[in-house]
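Please annotate the following for my students:
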Amino acid sequence: MRTFIPKKDEIEQKWWLIDAEGKVLGRLATEIADLIRGKKKPQFTSHLDTGDFVVVVNAEKIKVSGRKLDQKTYYSHSLYPGGLKEEKLKDLLTRKPEEVIKKAVWGMIPKGKLGRAVYKKLKVYRGPQHPHEAQNPQEYRT
C-alpha cells in the first residue's frame, strides 16, 4: 500500500463565511484553525496546505467565558529596554476586535513556513460587511 499525497491541482479550496456573533472565542478559533488547515477534509496531509479560506464577520460580538475579559493580558515587546507593552482583552476588543480572533487562531496553527501560509487564508472583519463577495463564500454552521 502506498500513502496518498494530493497534488497541488487536486486540492480544492473553498471559501467559508463564519458569523462570530455570540460565539465563544476559543471554540470559534478551534473551528477556524481546523478549516484553514484542512483537517476536516479526507485528503488532509499535515505537511501540505490543503485548507480552505475563512471569512469571519462581526468580530466585535464574540463572547469569552469566565473572567477572561478582565484577566487575560496580551504582551508585546519592542526589543528595546523597557519596551514591554501589555493590553487587557477588554481593551483590545474595543480597539481591534479582529486581532483577538487572529491571535487566538495563530496560537492553534503550526509555526513556520506552512503555518504562515495557512494563516494568510484567514480574513477577519469588524462588522457584517466584507470585500469577498466575488468569491461567493458559503455559510459555515458550527
Observations:
- The two ends are 35 Å apart (CA to CA).
- The CA atoms of residues 21 and 61 lie 5 Å apart.
- DSSP finds five helices and six strands in the chain.
